[in-house]
Known about the structure:
This protein is mainly β. It contains 5 helices and 13 strands.
Amino acid sequence: xxxxSIEEVLTGNAYPGRxxxxxxxxxxxxxxxxxxxxxxxxxxxxxxxxxxGEGIRTQAFDPSKLxxxxxxxxxxxxxxxxxxxxxxxxxxxxxxxxxxxxxxFEQSLRxxxxxxxxxxxxxxISGIMHIEDGKYNYAMSILKSNNGNPxxxxxxxxxxxxxxxxxxxxxxxxxxxxxxxxxxxxxPEWIEISGNIDELTDRIWNSLNEENKVSLxxxxxxxxxxxxxxxxxxxxK
Length: 237
C-alpha cells in the first residue's frame, strides 16, 4: 500500500462523503483525529459542528430548513475516560454505552448495521483512540452492505498498535460521487500526517470539494498528558 498525503486522496474526489482520519503527529507527541462531513442535499448541507462537553455534535444551521434529522443530527465525537470515539452516526453512542459496560469496540457495534438510506446504504464508519500511561493505539471499523445488497452486512475492523509517527489511516463512506453512491472498499488508506494542528486543519479543509464540504473537526491529544487541542471549521457561518 502506498502512503499518500491527504491532498492526494481528497483532491479530485468530489464526494468522499464523511471521513475519519486517525494517526500520530510527525513529532510523535500527539494522537491525531480528524472527521469531516459533506453534503449534496439542502438537508445535509444545513449543518454545523458545535462543541458538546469533550466531544462535538452536529446541529442544524438553519432550523427552519431541517427536514429529516434521523441520519444527520448526532454526536460524531465522544470521550469515555482515556478513549476518544469518532464516528459518522449515532453509533458513537452505541460504542460509548457498550464500552462503558466493558464490551469491546467490535462487540459494541455488533448490534448495528449500515445506514438504511436506500439505495446508498451508507456505511457506518467508526474509530476509537486509546491513550494510557504514555501509550497509544487505535482501531477503525466499517459496517457496509454486501456490495449494495442490504440482506447482508459485512463487518470489518482494523487495529493499529503503537502507531508510527507521521502517519495514520483514513476511511470514508464513499469511493466517489455516483448514483447510487459506491461504498468505500478495502482497508483504511495509509496517510501521511505532518504539520501542527492548524496546518493539518487547513490542508484537509482546502482539499475538500468546495461545493460539497460542510464541516471539519481536528483534534491533537498529548499522549503523555491526555490534554488536547481542537479545531472546528464550518462552511455555514
